[in-house]
Design a protein that fits this description.
With about 250 residues, the chain is an alpha+beta fold. Helix content is about 20%, strand content about 25%. It contains seven helices and 15 strands. The chain has helices at about 15-20, 45-55, 135-140, 140-155, 180-185, 200-210, 235, and strands at about 5, 10, 15, 25-30, 75, 100, 110, 115-120, 125-135, 160-165, 175, 190, 195, 215-220, 245-250. It has a seven-stranded mixed β-sheet with strand order 1-14-10-8-9-6-5. The chain has a five-stranded antiparallel β-sheet with strand order 2-3-4-15-7. It has a three-stranded antiparallel β-sheet with strand order 11-13-12, with no helix packed on it. A hairpin with a 2-residue loop joins strand 12 and strand 13 (about 195). The longest helix is centred in the first third of the chain and has 13 residues, at about 45-55. It is globular. Mean pLDDT is about 90; it is low at about 40-45.
């Protein structure tokens, strides 16, 4: 169902050569770095982040991030958003789970620890989007709404979009209750007496329904729980879990 997403492993993060061939920066971090929100503006984690951004070739001072409330709000961002403090919950883009931009050198970032980070790129109009997709967001059609916003704001043709799916809690580990049968009838699988959710399949179904070509969807096939030694997993670690950052930037 998914094309394999070839990744390049670096020190503390993975890059996505498929997207970087188009003069983009597209990366996601491992658990070597906790990129979650912090309390102290000038604390050790802030200084560490600056080092991480430099290592990844990103412009951390301009980084834009949403608050991520498991909703369906999509925001188009530009240069006027670059001075927001991306390190604190109170100053990021509120009530937002997906970002779109056509502006160069403006990194878009989301945080995850089991939810699905989705990279979308329109090579024709040179527009990018980052989507934070948990099960609630997928159920609220956040992917569909992101594609629609790209089409409405930048005349993106969905069939042109290239999509990369990052690390996420996979079917092997994503146990759910019976109510998910009605929420995602085509993405629930049973093993013994237990039910498991395939969020990547549910997300992909939404992409196909939105007009994205099947041959343009690439999956990392990384399970955050199975590879908990390398990625954070809220399901496995609970409140102790840090956050990985997925980020994309037009060069």
């Amino acid at each position: 169902m998914f094309l394999p997403l070839i990744l390049k492993k670096n020190d503390g993060f993975y890059s996505i050569p498929l997207l970087e061939e188009y003069r983009l920066k597209a990366v996601f971090t491992t658990r070597k770095y906790d990129m979650g929100f912090q309390q102290s503006l000038y604390g050790p984690r802030h200084l560490l982040r600056k080092q991480v951004y430099k290592k990844m070739g990103l412009r951390g001072a301009r980084l834009v991030r949403p608050s991520q409330v498991h909703g369906d709000s999509v925001c188009v961002v530009n240069g006027q958003h670059k001075d927001r403090d991306a390190y604190h919950r109170s100053t990021v883009l509120q009530e937002t789970d997906a970002l779109i931009t056509a502006e160069r050198r403006l990194p878009l970032a989301i945080l995850t620890a089991d939810c699905l980070p989705i990279f979308l790129f329109d090579p024709d109009k040179r527009v990018i989007a980052m989507v934070h997709a948990g099960w609630r967001g997928v159920h609220k059609k956040i992917i569909t709404k992101t594609v629609q916003k790209m089409s409405g704001s930048f005349k993106t043709s969905p069939s042109d979009l290239i999509v990369a799916l990052g690390p996420v809690l996979r079917t092997c580990c994503y146990e759910v209750g019976g109510e998910f049968r009605n929420l995602f009838p085509g993405a629930i699988y049973s093993r013994g007496k237990k039910l498991y959710f395939d969020i990547a399949a549910a997300a992909t179904e939404q992409m196909l329904d939105s007009g994205i070509a099947a041959g343009h969807i690439y999956d990392s096939h990384i399970c955050t729980s199975c590879l908990n030694s390398e990625f954070f997993s809220y399901r496995k670690e609970g409140l102790r879990a840090g956050r990985s950052m997925s980020v994309m930037e037009l060069s």
